[in-house]
Fold:
Amino acid sequence: MTNFNLVILGMDYTYTIIDQDATSSLQLQHYLEDYGDFQCVAQATDHEDGLNTILKHHPDIVFLNLDHGASLYFQMVKELHLYITEFPVLIGISSGKEHAYDAIKNDFFDYWLLPFNEFDMRKTLLRLKKQLPKEHTGTTLCLKSYKDFHYLDTDEILYLKADNNSTDFFMKDGSTISAFKTLKTFESQLPKNFIRVHQSYILNMNFVSRINYGKGLCTLKTSKMQLPFSKTYRENIDSLKKVLSKNSITTLN
Structure:
């Protein structure tokens, strides 16, 4: 059994830090690590390198320390409009308030004063998540263990089965991949087409061909395998039925 961890590609908010001060840059990264869904893709120390970094990595968020060369950074922001259509969220960082007005004029999302205030940061990040929710943009699971990276296309996963403190992934091609994590670990992080139907099973609804309420069974299209569902997850089964029935023609026997 391989001791895998779970990463869902495309779920993190990516960010770039443009800051001459290595200490504040490192401190900011440490703060963001506590939230778990923010990934640093690059760092820069001046406006030219910062512009190149943004155009190269297309981060969701750009943190700008305005204490050094603020006017150059504001000019960089204006120049960005010439090259990109999806503009990043801009958050200014400064030891004083003198650049706050210009930050507002340049549509900065927020402005943080140094030293960092954890409460202010938390409010900003929660507001960002609420106003700009990050959707499931990727359909790949990366199960990683040390230097081993195993990539699974979620469209190829039939179902997941709990096996004590581990989880087995049953694939469309007949293979099985095991991860040393509980089923609950994966439940909240998988795409919306995966639903929990039993203490031991999560199904990919795209492969369900039949729901038998009398026997408490779901049948899969590919393998014709029948998997049980329990009363505890009856609400999920009802939601599954609505989704499958939405675009189907119903006949009564």
